[in-house]
Amino acid sequence: MKELETLLHALGLSRKYVGYDSILMAVDIVMHNRRALNNVKADIYTVIADARGCTWSAVERSIRTAIKHMWKTHRDQVKELLLYYQEIQPTATELIDLLVLYLEYAEPIAKKAETKCDFCY
């Protein structure tokens, strides 16, 4: 999760936003169960709400507020780092999915870059 925290900071999001922790938890849930994206309210928002002692709608709102901030202050970084090419800000579900994909693909790429090829000196 350290890599995700670094990414969120690069996208302009800090811990001062309640949505920060909600995003961390949502990505963790999806990393363990991709199908959670098929029923976000029950499988993600409600689980986080139960853990945080709030409603599922408060969780969703906190994530939307975090996305709005990232989009307003770091739109170019969101588009570049997450390969998001739409002109409107991503929905909460889209952002969670993009972050999971980033983490899944960034790690193998980084590991591949660390290993030397057979032709390298």
Question: Can you describe what's shown?
Answer:
The structure is a single chain. α2 (18-32) crosses α3 and α3 (40-52) crosses α4 (56-82). This protein has helices at 2-10, 18-32, 40-52, 56-82, 92-114. It contains 5 helices and no strands. The protein is an all-alpha fold and 121 residues long. The relative contact order is 0.15. The radius of gyration is 16 Å and the shape is globular. Helix content is 72%, strand content 0%.
Task: Characterize this entry briefly.
This protein is mostly helical. It contains 5 helices and no strands.
Main sheet specs: none
Provide the number of structural domains. 1
Radius of gyration: 16 Å
Count the DSSP helices: 5
The CATH homology group name: Winged helix-like DNA-binding domain superfamily/Winged helix DNA-binding domain
Average pLDDT level: 89
Low-confidence stretches: 109-121
The amount of helix comes to over 70%
Structure class: mainly alpha
Straight-line distance between termini: 34 Å
Residues in β-strands, percent: under 5%
Task: Please tag this protein with its features.
121 residues, mainly alpha, Arc Repressor Mutant, subunit A, 5 helices, 72% helix, globular
Describe the secondary structure blueprint for this structure.
Layout lengths: L1 H9 L7 H15 L7 H13 L3 H27 L9 H23 L7
Helix pairs in contact: 2-3, 2-4, 2-5, 3-4, 4-5
